Amino acid sequence: MSNPAGVRQPFFAPFVTRSARYVRASPGIVAGGGLLLFMLLASFLAPLPHDPITPDPTAVLQAPSAEYVFGTDANGFDVFSRVIAAGRSDLPLALMGTLASLVIGLLIGLPLSVKSRWSEGFMRALDAFQSFPLIVLSVTIVSLTGNDIQNILYAIVIINGPRFIRLIRGEALSIRDGRFIEAAIATGARPRRVVFRHIMPNVVDVCLVQCSLTTANAVIVIAALNFLGIGVSPPTPTWGSMVQVGAQAISTGQWWIAIWPGVAIFLAIASLNMLANGIQRQVEGS
Amino acid sequence: MLRVTGLTSQFRGRAGVVRAIDDVTFEVPEGESVGIVGETGSGKSVTIRSVLGLLPSYGEVVSGSAEFEGTDLVRLNRARLREIRGARIGFVAQNPFGSLNPVLSIEKQFRNVVRAHRRISRTDLRDLAVERLESVQVRGPERVLRGYAHELSGGMAQRVVIALAMLHDPSLVIADEPTTALDVTVQRQILDLIDAQVKQGRRSLLLVTHDLGVVAQYCHRVVVMKSGKVVETGLVADVFSDPSHDYTRQLLAAVPPAPWADDVPSLSGQEVHR
Amino acid sequence: MTVPEAIQAEPVPAAPREKRRRPLLRYIVKRIAIVPVSLFVLGSVSFFLVFLIPGEPAITILGDFATKEQIAHVNSQLGLDKPLLERYFSFWGNLLQGDLGTSFFTNEPILHDIGKFLPNTLELVFFALLLAIGLGMAIGVVGAYFARRIPDRIMSGLTSVLQSVPDFFLALVGIYVFFFLLGWAPAPIGRLPIESGSADDRPFLIISSLFTGDWTTLGEAVSHAALPVLSLGLVYASYFAKTARGSMGTALTTPQVEFARACGLRERTVVYYAFAASRTTVVTYIAILFGSLLGGAAIVERVFNWRGMGQWALDGVLKVDVPIIQGFVVTAGLLTLTLFLLLDLVVLFLDPRVSYE
After folding, report:
1. Complex confidence, ipTM
2. Coil, strand or helix: which one is C333?
3. Chain C residues with CB inside 8 Å of B91's CB?
4. Looking at the whole model, is its pTM more than 0.90?
5. pLDDT, tens digit, for every residue of A75-122?
6. Is C16 on the interface with B (CB under 8 A)?
7. Contacts of A84 (CB under 8 A, 6+ apart)
8. Is residue C64 within 8 Å of C21, Cβ to Cβ?
9. What does the alpha-carbon distance between residue B105 and residue B126 come to, in Å, rounded to a whole number?
10. pLDDT mean over B144-150
11. A interface mutation test: which of C117, C161, C168 has the most A CBs within 10 A?
């Protein structure tokens, strides 16, 4: 968030002070944020005992042991190394998807916060869109546009963009009705200035909560798509595709192949949910 | 009848414990009407909720007692307290639309309130409900019973609430600012109605209000509260003609001269400036 | 709560009823009138999905080694050899006649496939939704009633855990524990054991065997459905729990509930009052969740080889079988629209405040 140029300083300043306020004494934020940070650091910094993309054909379906901490899968891949390495693609991808959704939400949600027939109509259309099985639609789009990992971003945006649009519009509408906006306009501020100086910082609050939730959802979407074999090119490790490989072995008792990446997904989502709950509580409390 | 002694309640919040009322003591004698006055946040509502056991889950009575017909309501278990609420003590709240359930028919709400305290056959229940609605001057009671709260006007809804509160002929009626949410034109009607119901049944009334004119007109005694404490209590005539506490004097000075002596139609429209 | 229907059975004068019914009817008609519009959008979306395929669709579908004849065949199937407008109109003509085309790979008529697979999905989604609503509401109501106290903490903890598990992973854990370790559940091989033959032509196994009294089939069907229903239902219960906790929590602090207590109502009646006032929120939420439940079902179906519409659609998607994709988009959209319509009407009867205008 540090911005040496300082162009947007007035906008980011409240954000920074708020962040500082949140961190202070909130178990959810500390635990959730800590866990997430730990997972990110582990993904990039933890030493890998084996090469995550080179299988060892002599060690297939090994149960967890000192040599293979999480065991090996049917191809002889080391599960531990792959679980760690998968975080390198899964977590940043989820964060990027969230960022893209947020940008979409801001770009569409803020202009829509002007009450008009047109914006009402758009929201209706959005309702209809959201009621559709979006995961299937995004599977369709990702597989139609090509089996590329970047295309998963589309999937995340399709599912989460509308949520941001709705949230940001609603928030901006309610804040716009607030007295201080009236005052700002009365003192002669231009509408655009009102939007960016007065509405934006307030929207940031709720967006922070939604960002955590969206990242959690993005982790699920990525895992689900990879589980279906979409957006992955083997042998690149991803949690979802690892669960898929493990799914074939779980009926015969080789639990470790699917469970460990599943636990990683669970921890990532749980940490983000904790973070969201913690921030939510802080926002409500203040 | 009701004797509140040293009642102290507090709320647990994020910022720690907040004492909402402190050592509140007053009495509602048999057959008399007592008004509690004070500005917003002075603890009026917390006092009656402490008495009725209606504090939210994060609030509690720490000490004191509220003796009603010989039993201390504060120490009563929940089941016994429930038997007293609605049966021996009737409650009329501020906003009639807030009080009535929005999605249950009025008849169903009557039925639930009656059945909370005694068994009754369906035809008897309907007769009773119609009779009670008529006694609070609701026109077309059958139609009202079939309908829902949102179909009523504010005044009508509050009449329904009063009928519900009086359903079991309580000996004490507690009214929490019963007219604040209503149109100025019906405020007086509702107050007159409560007054008449109380006098008819020789009940006692505990009326919470911020309107000194109302107290002057309808109450025998007054309890003046400020910041969770009782600052003055006594007969209305005594307190209003010779207030002993500065705060009471300020309150009185805020209303036009001696409205309680005159026949001033309504004070509620007046602005209170301190 | 006790004997509530008795009152409605009483004779009611006709006049006020009449007055209320007509605007209601008008509302329903208006509500139904939206359906064709939505259908138009839905059909168009499914038509234009094909344009998302980059490059030449036939090559994407058939792979790089396709022969000229194959490509020409797919192109004529897709209608790519005709002008756009003509294709669009013939697509609509076929769709309105219920003709969704045939699969590129199996040559099965899409409509026939949907008839075969949709009931299985509906069965799964129905029971999962039932479990999700029941359990979710229970968790939410308990949490709201004991707000900020220990039961609330436990319930919100449970909600968070369930919310953090992807449904397909929960399904795998279920298979490992209940099939492999404990042997309570059957292998994840479909809706019936292999000995019982194909289950494809036997839709709605649980309900139909319940009515015909075929207890053996019922037992087999239930034991095969248990894990998929549980893994979907538990995850979605957490969403309902969150909503129910929120709306009940608000409802329980309203003056309405305070007044009910002040009237001496029993606690369970008080909770019912709050529940009645907040139930429309939850009903509306069903409509919102249904879409994602359908999507979740697709993946879970795949894990359990459930042979439902979701699994069929996913297989079609992975093979870029365009008619299957179009068929699924239209069917899922229709389902969602129908559910929205139904739930709107339910809300209408649950909440007298909803205006018909």
Report:
1. 0.88
2. helix
3. 259, 262-263
4. no
5. 889 999 999 999 998 999 999 999 999 999 989 988 888 777 888 888
6. yes
7. A42, A43, A46, A48, A52
8. no
9. 13
10. 91
11. C168
